[in-house]
Amino acid sequence: MKGLTVSQFYDSLRDKLELKLVAGEKGLKRKILISEINRPGLVLTGHVKFFANRRGQVLGKVEISYLRGLSARKRKENIHIFFQQKIPFCIIARNYIPPRELLSEADKIGIPIFRSPLVTTRLLNLCTIALEEMVAPSTSVIANLVEVYGVGVIINGQSGVGKSECTLSLVERGHRLVSDDYIHVHLMEGTYLLGEGSELTRFHMEIRGLGIIDVRTLFGVGCVRQRKRVDLAVTLEPWDMDKEYERLGLDEGYLSILGVEIPHIILPVGPGRDLALLIEVAALNHRIKQMGYHSAQALDLQIKDRISKGSP
Amino acid sequence: MPEIKKKIEIINRLGMHARPAARLVQLTSRFRSDIIFKRGSDQVNGKSIMGVLMLAAPFGSTITVIARGDDADAAITEIEALFRSKFGEE
Questions:
Q1: Which of A151, A191, A275, A281 is 20 to 30 A from residue A290's alpha carbon, by CA?
Q2: What CATH number was assigned to the domain covering residues B3-88?
Q3: Which residue among B43, B47, B56 sits closest to A200, beta carbon to beta carbon?
Q4: Do B18 and B79 contact (CB within 8 A), yes or no?
Q5: Which of A30, A75, A180, A181 is catalytic?
Q6: What ipTM was reported for this prediction?
Q7: Is B17 a catalytic residue?
Q8: Domains of chain B: which residue ranges?
Q9: How does pLDDT run along chain B (90 residues), one tens digit per residue?
Protein backbone atom coordinates (compact mmCIF):
# COMPACT_ATOMS: atom_id res chain seq x y z
CA MET A 1 0.00 0.00 0.00
CA LYS A 2 1.21 3.46 -0.77
CA GLY A 3 1.37 5.56 2.36
CA LEU A 4 -2.20 6.59 3.10
CA THR A 5 -2.23 8.80 6.19
CA VAL A 6 -5.07 9.22 8.65
CA SER A 7 -5.04 12.87 7.66
CA GLN A 8 -5.77 11.97 4.02
CA PHE A 9 -8.46 9.54 5.17
CA TYR A 10 -10.02 12.32 7.25
CA ASP A 11 -9.92 14.84 4.41
CA SER A 12 -11.49 12.48 1.92
CA LEU A 13 -14.23 11.11 4.11
CA ARG A 14 -14.97 13.94 6.54
CA ASP A 15 -18.17 14.90 4.74
CA LYS A 16 -19.39 11.47 3.73
CA LEU A 17 -18.98 9.96 7.18
CA GLU A 18 -19.69 13.24 8.99
CA LEU A 19 -16.48 12.87 10.99
CA LYS A 20 -15.37 15.21 13.73
CA LEU A 21 -11.86 14.97 15.20
CA VAL A 22 -12.14 14.98 18.99
CA ALA A 23 -8.70 13.84 20.17
CA GLY A 24 -5.26 12.65 19.16
CA GLU A 25 -4.60 15.33 16.55
CA LYS A 26 -0.87 14.70 16.65
CA GLY A 27 -1.52 11.20 15.30
CA LEU A 28 -3.01 12.41 12.01
CA LYS A 29 0.25 11.62 10.26
CA ARG A 30 -0.09 7.91 11.17
CA LYS A 31 -0.15 5.58 8.20
CA ILE A 32 -3.05 3.29 7.42
CA LEU A 33 -1.50 0.02 6.31
CA ILE A 34 -4.51 -2.26 6.02
CA SER A 35 -7.72 -1.32 4.28
CA GLU A 36 -9.98 -3.23 6.67
CA ILE A 37 -11.95 -1.72 9.51
CA ASN A 38 -12.36 -3.55 12.79
CA ARG A 39 -14.82 -3.44 15.64
CA PRO A 40 -12.89 -4.13 18.84
CA GLY A 41 -14.34 -6.93 20.86
CA LEU A 42 -12.56 -8.80 23.57
CA VAL A 43 -9.51 -6.56 23.33
CA LEU A 44 -11.46 -4.04 25.44
CA THR A 45 -11.50 -6.58 28.26
CA GLY A 46 -7.75 -6.89 28.05
CA HIS A 47 -7.62 -9.99 25.82
CA VAL A 48 -5.10 -8.91 23.22
CA LYS A 49 -4.22 -12.22 21.63
CA PHE A 50 -4.98 -12.27 17.88
CA PHE A 51 -6.41 -8.78 18.03
CA ALA A 52 -6.88 -7.28 14.56
CA ASN A 53 -4.44 -4.42 15.00
CA ARG A 54 -3.10 -1.98 12.37
CA ARG A 55 -6.69 -1.42 11.29
CA GLY A 56 -8.95 1.53 11.95
CA GLN A 57 -11.37 0.74 14.80
CA VAL A 58 -15.05 1.62 15.11
CA LEU A 59 -16.69 1.72 18.54
CA GLY A 60 -20.47 1.52 18.82
CA LYS A 61 -23.16 1.07 21.42
CA VAL A 62 -21.83 -2.22 22.76
CA GLU A 63 -18.25 -1.06 23.18
CA ILE A 64 -19.06 2.31 24.75
CA SER A 65 -21.56 0.83 27.19
CA TYR A 66 -19.01 -1.81 28.22
CA LEU A 67 -16.36 0.81 28.88
CA ARG A 68 -18.79 2.99 30.82
CA GLY A 69 -19.74 0.02 32.98
CA LEU A 70 -16.17 -0.54 34.17
CA SER A 71 -14.69 1.03 37.28
CA ALA A 72 -12.63 4.13 36.55
CA ARG A 73 -9.40 2.28 37.29
CA LYS A 74 -10.24 -0.73 35.09
CA ARG A 75 -11.45 1.55 32.32
CA LYS A 76 -8.20 3.49 32.30
CA GLU A 77 -6.19 0.26 32.35
CA ASN A 78 -8.13 -1.43 29.54
CA ILE A 79 -8.08 1.65 27.35
CA HIS A 80 -4.34 1.87 27.86
CA ILE A 81 -3.92 -1.78 26.77
CA PHE A 82 -6.17 -1.17 23.75
CA PHE A 83 -4.18 1.82 22.57
CA GLN A 84 -0.91 -0.07 22.86
CA GLN A 85 -2.08 -2.26 19.99
CA LYS A 86 -0.85 -0.24 16.99
CA ILE A 87 -4.12 1.36 15.91
CA PRO A 88 -4.12 4.08 13.25
CA PHE A 89 -7.42 5.70 14.37
CA CYS A 90 -10.77 5.16 16.09
CA ILE A 91 -14.23 6.31 15.15
CA ILE A 92 -16.97 6.52 17.76
CA ALA A 93 -20.32 5.87 16.12
CA ARG A 94 -23.79 7.24 16.89
CA ASN A 95 -22.20 10.43 18.21
CA TYR A 96 -21.63 8.77 21.56
CA ILE A 97 -19.49 10.79 23.90
CA PRO A 98 -16.48 8.64 24.63
CA PRO A 99 -15.15 8.23 28.19
CA ARG A 100 -12.79 11.01 29.29
CA GLU A 101 -10.00 8.48 29.77
CA LEU A 102 -10.21 7.43 26.13
CA LEU A 103 -9.75 10.97 24.91
CA SER A 104 -6.90 11.79 27.25
CA GLU A 105 -5.07 8.55 26.50
CA ALA A 106 -5.54 9.17 22.77
CA ASP A 107 -4.09 12.67 23.12
CA LYS A 108 -1.17 11.28 25.11
CA ILE A 109 -0.26 8.47 22.72
CA GLY A 110 -1.36 10.32 19.58
CA ILE A 111 -4.17 8.21 18.11
CA PRO A 112 -6.81 10.24 16.23
CA ILE A 113 -10.31 9.76 17.60
CA PHE A 114 -13.28 10.80 15.47
CA ARG A 115 -16.98 10.99 16.26
CA SER A 116 -19.67 10.32 13.69
CA PRO A 117 -23.45 10.49 13.97
CA LEU A 118 -23.82 7.48 11.71
CA VAL A 119 -25.04 4.13 12.97
CA THR A 120 -22.21 1.67 13.61
CA THR A 121 -22.93 -0.87 10.88
CA ARG A 122 -23.42 1.81 8.28
CA LEU A 123 -20.17 3.44 9.36
CA LEU A 124 -18.34 0.13 9.10
CA ASN A 125 -19.68 -0.50 5.60
CA LEU A 126 -18.94 2.96 4.26
CA CYS A 127 -15.44 2.95 5.75
CA THR A 128 -14.62 -0.43 4.27
CA ILE A 129 -15.80 0.53 0.82
CA ALA A 130 -14.02 3.88 0.93
CA LEU A 131 -10.73 2.46 2.19
CA GLU A 132 -10.79 -0.32 -0.39
CA GLU A 133 -11.10 2.29 -3.07
CA MET A 134 -8.46 4.59 -1.63
CA VAL A 135 -5.79 1.93 -1.47
CA ALA A 136 -6.68 0.08 -4.62
CA PRO A 137 -3.70 -0.24 -6.93
CA SER A 138 -4.03 2.02 -9.92
CA THR A 139 -2.23 2.89 -13.09
CA SER A 140 -2.67 5.12 -16.09
CA VAL A 141 -3.33 3.74 -19.56
CA ILE A 142 -2.86 5.80 -22.68
CA ALA A 143 -6.04 4.95 -24.57
CA ASN A 144 -9.68 5.96 -24.89
CA LEU A 145 -12.44 4.49 -22.76
CA VAL A 146 -15.94 4.34 -24.15
CA GLU A 147 -19.08 2.61 -22.92
CA VAL A 148 -20.67 0.76 -25.84
CA TYR A 149 -23.98 -1.04 -25.19
CA GLY A 150 -23.06 -1.22 -21.53
CA VAL A 151 -19.62 -2.68 -22.24
CA GLY A 152 -16.55 -0.67 -21.15
CA VAL A 153 -14.24 -0.67 -24.17
CA ILE A 154 -10.64 0.51 -24.14
CA ILE A 155 -9.65 1.76 -27.57
CA ASN A 156 -5.94 2.03 -28.13
CA GLY A 157 -3.52 2.35 -30.98
CA GLN A 158 -0.81 4.60 -32.34
CA SER A 159 -1.38 8.30 -32.69
CA GLY A 160 -3.08 9.14 -35.92
CA VAL A 161 -4.63 5.72 -36.49
CA GLY A 162 -8.13 7.08 -35.93
CA LYS A 163 -8.97 6.39 -32.27
CA SER A 164 -10.53 9.79 -31.68
CA GLU A 165 -12.57 9.85 -34.87
CA CYS A 166 -13.80 6.35 -34.14
CA THR A 167 -14.67 7.36 -30.58
CA LEU A 168 -16.54 10.41 -31.83
CA SER A 169 -18.48 8.23 -34.21
CA LEU A 170 -19.45 5.97 -31.33
CA VAL A 171 -20.60 8.97 -29.30
CA GLU A 172 -22.68 10.15 -32.23
CA ARG A 173 -24.34 6.74 -32.31
CA GLY A 174 -25.38 7.12 -28.70
CA HIS A 175 -22.54 5.53 -26.80
CA ARG A 176 -20.78 7.21 -23.93
CA LEU A 177 -17.33 8.75 -23.71
CA VAL A 178 -15.51 8.18 -20.45
CA SER A 179 -12.12 9.54 -21.42
CA ASP A 180 -9.99 10.44 -24.43
CA ASP A 181 -6.34 9.44 -24.55
CA TYR A 182 -5.87 8.90 -20.83
CA ILE A 183 -7.54 6.42 -18.49
CA HIS A 184 -6.91 6.22 -14.79
CA VAL A 185 -7.52 2.57 -13.97
CA HIS A 186 -8.19 1.27 -10.45
CA LEU A 187 -8.18 -2.37 -9.40
CA MET A 188 -11.36 -2.95 -7.42
CA GLU A 189 -11.76 -5.75 -4.89
CA GLY A 190 -8.73 -7.36 -6.47
CA THR A 191 -10.86 -8.62 -9.35
CA TYR A 192 -12.07 -6.00 -11.79
CA LEU A 193 -10.92 -2.74 -13.30
CA LEU A 194 -12.63 0.62 -13.06
CA GLY A 195 -11.57 3.35 -15.48
CA GLU A 196 -12.10 7.09 -15.46
CA GLY A 197 -10.65 10.20 -17.00
CA SER A 198 -8.72 12.96 -15.34
CA GLU A 199 -10.88 15.55 -13.61
CA LEU A 200 -9.54 18.45 -15.68
CA THR A 201 -9.79 17.05 -19.16
CA ARG A 202 -12.46 14.44 -18.60
CA PHE A 203 -14.94 14.84 -21.45
CA HIS A 204 -12.74 16.74 -23.84
CA MET A 205 -11.34 15.26 -27.01
CA GLU A 206 -8.73 16.34 -29.48
CA ILE A 207 -9.66 16.00 -33.14
CA ARG A 208 -6.93 16.85 -35.64
CA GLY A 209 -8.12 19.76 -37.68
CA LEU A 210 -10.85 20.72 -35.23
CA GLY A 211 -8.84 21.04 -32.06
CA ILE A 212 -10.23 20.41 -28.61
CA ILE A 213 -13.94 19.78 -28.29
CA ASP A 214 -16.07 19.33 -25.21
CA VAL A 215 -18.20 16.29 -25.86
CA ARG A 216 -20.47 16.86 -22.91
CA THR A 217 -21.43 20.32 -24.09
CA LEU A 218 -21.76 19.36 -27.73
CA PHE A 219 -23.56 16.05 -27.36
CA GLY A 220 -25.11 16.27 -23.92
CA VAL A 221 -24.70 14.65 -20.56
CA GLY A 222 -26.27 11.43 -21.84
CA CYS A 223 -23.24 10.91 -24.06
CA VAL A 224 -20.65 10.88 -21.33
CA ARG A 225 -19.97 8.78 -18.29
CA GLN A 226 -17.70 9.48 -15.37
CA ARG A 227 -16.39 6.00 -14.66
CA LYS A 228 -16.88 2.62 -16.18
CA ARG A 229 -15.76 -0.93 -15.58
CA VAL A 230 -13.22 -2.07 -18.20
CA ASP A 231 -14.57 -5.15 -20.02
CA LEU A 232 -12.92 -5.25 -23.41
CA ALA A 233 -9.84 -3.82 -25.15
CA VAL A 234 -9.63 -3.01 -28.84
CA THR A 235 -6.37 -2.08 -30.52
CA LEU A 236 -6.56 -0.29 -33.85
CA GLU A 237 -3.59 -0.72 -36.10
CA PRO A 238 -2.74 0.06 -39.72
CA TRP A 239 -3.56 -2.94 -41.87
CA ASP A 240 -0.41 -5.01 -42.22
CA MET A 241 -0.67 -7.28 -45.24
CA ASP A 242 1.89 -9.66 -43.81
CA LYS A 243 0.16 -10.08 -40.49
CA GLU A 244 -2.35 -12.80 -39.71
CA TYR A 245 -5.48 -11.28 -38.22
CA GLU A 246 -8.04 -13.22 -36.25
CA ARG A 247 -10.34 -15.08 -38.66
CA LEU A 248 -12.31 -17.35 -36.31
CA GLY A 249 -12.68 -15.68 -32.94
CA LEU A 250 -12.34 -19.05 -31.21
CA ASP A 251 -9.12 -18.26 -29.41
CA GLU A 252 -9.23 -15.11 -27.39
CA GLY A 253 -6.35 -12.77 -26.90
CA TYR A 254 -5.96 -10.98 -23.58
CA LEU A 255 -4.40 -7.77 -22.38
CA SER A 256 -3.18 -7.63 -18.81
CA ILE A 257 -3.75 -4.51 -16.73
CA LEU A 258 -2.91 -4.54 -13.00
CA GLY A 259 -3.01 -8.31 -13.15
CA VAL A 260 -6.50 -8.52 -14.62
CA GLU A 261 -6.85 -10.23 -18.01
CA ILE A 262 -9.04 -8.21 -20.35
CA PRO A 263 -10.27 -9.76 -23.62
CA HIS A 264 -8.35 -8.10 -26.42
CA ILE A 265 -9.20 -7.61 -30.08
CA ILE A 266 -6.92 -6.26 -32.79
CA LEU A 267 -8.71 -4.44 -35.58
CA PRO A 268 -6.83 -3.60 -38.73
CA VAL A 269 -7.70 -0.17 -40.07
CA GLY A 270 -8.29 0.16 -43.77
CA PRO A 271 -10.26 2.36 -46.15
CA GLY A 272 -13.95 1.56 -46.12
CA ARG A 273 -13.82 -0.12 -42.74
CA ASP A 274 -16.41 1.35 -40.41
CA LEU A 275 -14.46 1.01 -37.17
CA ALA A 276 -17.22 2.34 -34.95
CA LEU A 277 -19.56 -0.32 -36.32
CA LEU A 278 -16.94 -3.00 -35.76
CA ILE A 279 -16.46 -1.89 -32.18
CA GLU A 280 -20.22 -1.90 -31.62
CA VAL A 281 -20.35 -5.46 -32.90
CA ALA A 282 -17.36 -6.44 -30.76
CA ALA A 283 -19.16 -5.06 -27.70
CA LEU A 284 -22.37 -6.92 -28.56
CA ASN A 285 -20.41 -10.09 -29.16
CA HIS A 286 -18.76 -9.65 -25.78
CA ARG A 287 -22.16 -9.29 -24.16
CA ILE A 288 -23.54 -12.38 -25.74
CA LYS A 289 -20.49 -14.37 -24.70
CA GLN A 290 -21.04 -13.15 -21.14
CA MET A 291 -24.58 -14.47 -21.42
CA GLY A 292 -23.23 -17.87 -22.32
CA TYR A 293 -23.52 -18.00 -26.10
CA HIS A 294 -20.32 -18.07 -28.14
CA SER A 295 -21.26 -17.70 -31.83
CA ALA A 296 -18.04 -19.04 -33.33
CA GLN A 297 -18.00 -22.05 -31.00
CA ALA A 298 -21.67 -22.80 -31.65
CA LEU A 299 -21.12 -22.68 -35.41
CA ASP A 300 -18.06 -24.89 -35.12
CA LEU A 301 -20.05 -27.46 -33.15
CA GLN A 302 -22.79 -27.46 -35.76
CA ILE A 303 -20.25 -27.96 -38.51
CA LYS A 304 -18.52 -30.77 -36.65
CA ASP A 305 -21.91 -32.34 -36.19
CA ARG A 306 -22.73 -32.02 -39.91
CA ILE A 307 -19.32 -33.41 -40.85
CA SER A 308 -19.82 -36.45 -38.65
CA LYS A 309 -23.22 -37.15 -40.23
CA GLY A 310 -22.24 -36.33 -43.80
CA SER A 311 -21.65 -38.78 -46.61
CA PRO A 312 -18.03 -39.37 -47.62
CA MET B 1 14.70 -0.17 -30.09
CA PRO B 2 16.40 2.74 -28.33
CA GLU B 3 14.62 4.34 -25.41
CA ILE B 4 15.79 7.68 -24.05
CA LYS B 5 14.61 9.40 -20.85
CA LYS B 6 15.21 13.01 -19.97
CA LYS B 7 14.03 15.27 -17.17
CA ILE B 8 13.11 18.72 -18.40
CA GLU B 9 12.07 21.73 -16.37
CA ILE B 10 9.28 24.12 -17.32
CA ILE B 11 10.72 27.60 -17.42
CA ASN B 12 7.99 29.65 -19.03
CA ARG B 13 6.06 31.71 -16.55
CA LEU B 14 2.53 30.57 -17.33
CA GLY B 15 3.40 26.90 -17.30
CA MET B 16 2.06 24.29 -19.72
CA HIS B 17 -1.16 25.92 -20.83
CA ALA B 18 -2.96 25.44 -24.14
CA ARG B 19 -0.62 27.24 -26.53
CA PRO B 20 2.69 25.74 -25.44
CA ALA B 21 0.95 22.37 -25.22
CA ALA B 22 -0.20 22.72 -28.83
CA ARG B 23 3.31 23.65 -29.99
CA LEU B 24 4.73 20.73 -28.07
CA VAL B 25 2.41 18.13 -29.57
CA GLN B 26 2.86 19.52 -33.05
CA LEU B 27 6.56 18.86 -32.56
CA THR B 28 6.21 15.43 -30.98
CA SER B 29 3.74 14.25 -33.61
CA ARG B 30 6.43 14.65 -36.26
CA PHE B 31 8.53 11.84 -34.80
CA ARG B 32 7.98 8.15 -35.42
CA SER B 33 9.03 7.25 -31.87
CA ASP B 34 6.47 6.77 -29.13
CA ILE B 35 6.69 9.71 -26.77
CA ILE B 36 5.51 9.72 -23.18
CA PHE B 37 5.51 12.51 -20.61
CA LYS B 38 5.55 11.69 -16.93
CA ARG B 39 4.81 13.96 -14.03
CA GLY B 40 4.56 12.39 -10.60
CA SER B 41 2.50 9.23 -10.98
CA ASP B 42 0.78 10.40 -14.16
CA GLN B 43 1.86 9.12 -17.51
CA VAL B 44 0.44 10.60 -20.72
CA ASN B 45 0.78 10.26 -24.47
CA GLY B 46 3.23 12.96 -25.57
CA LYS B 47 1.55 13.28 -28.94
CA SER B 48 -1.84 14.06 -27.49
CA ILE B 49 -2.76 17.56 -26.49
CA MET B 50 -5.32 16.19 -24.04
CA GLY B 51 -2.58 14.24 -22.33
CA VAL B 52 -0.17 17.16 -22.08
CA LEU B 53 -2.87 19.53 -20.80
CA MET B 54 -3.97 17.03 -18.21
CA LEU B 55 -0.59 17.32 -16.52
CA ALA B 56 -1.38 20.98 -15.77
CA ALA B 57 2.34 21.50 -15.23
CA PRO B 58 3.23 24.85 -13.66
CA PHE B 59 6.34 26.97 -13.95
CA GLY B 60 9.24 25.30 -12.16
CA SER B 61 7.89 21.77 -12.34
CA THR B 62 9.78 18.94 -13.97
CA ILE B 63 8.52 16.58 -16.64
CA THR B 64 10.23 13.34 -17.60
CA VAL B 65 10.19 12.77 -21.35
CA ILE B 66 10.53 9.21 -22.63
CA ALA B 67 11.08 8.58 -26.33
CA ARG B 68 11.09 5.06 -27.78
CA GLY B 69 12.03 4.50 -31.42
CA ASP B 70 14.71 5.02 -34.09
CA ASP B 71 14.43 8.79 -33.94
CA ALA B 72 14.30 8.95 -30.14
CA ASP B 73 17.53 10.86 -29.97
CA ALA B 74 16.42 13.60 -32.35
CA ALA B 75 13.05 13.76 -30.59
CA ILE B 76 14.55 14.37 -27.15
CA THR B 77 16.96 16.98 -28.50
CA GLU B 78 14.26 18.97 -30.25
CA ILE B 79 11.78 18.65 -27.39
CA GLU B 80 14.35 19.92 -24.95
CA ALA B 81 15.16 22.83 -27.24
CA LEU B 82 11.49 23.78 -27.42
CA PHE B 83 11.15 23.76 -23.63
CA ARG B 84 14.29 25.87 -23.29
CA SER B 85 12.97 28.39 -25.78
CA LYS B 86 10.00 28.86 -23.41
CA PHE B 87 7.77 27.85 -26.30
CA GLY B 88 8.28 31.22 -27.89
CA GLU B 89 6.56 33.05 -25.05
CA GLU B 90 8.26 36.03 -23.37
A1: A275
A2: 3.30.1340.10
A3: B56
A4: no
A5: A181
A6: 0.82
A7: yes
A8: 3-88
A9: 789 999 999 998 889 998 999 999 999 999 999 999 999 888 899 988 888 998 889 999 999 999 999 999 999 999 999 999 988 887
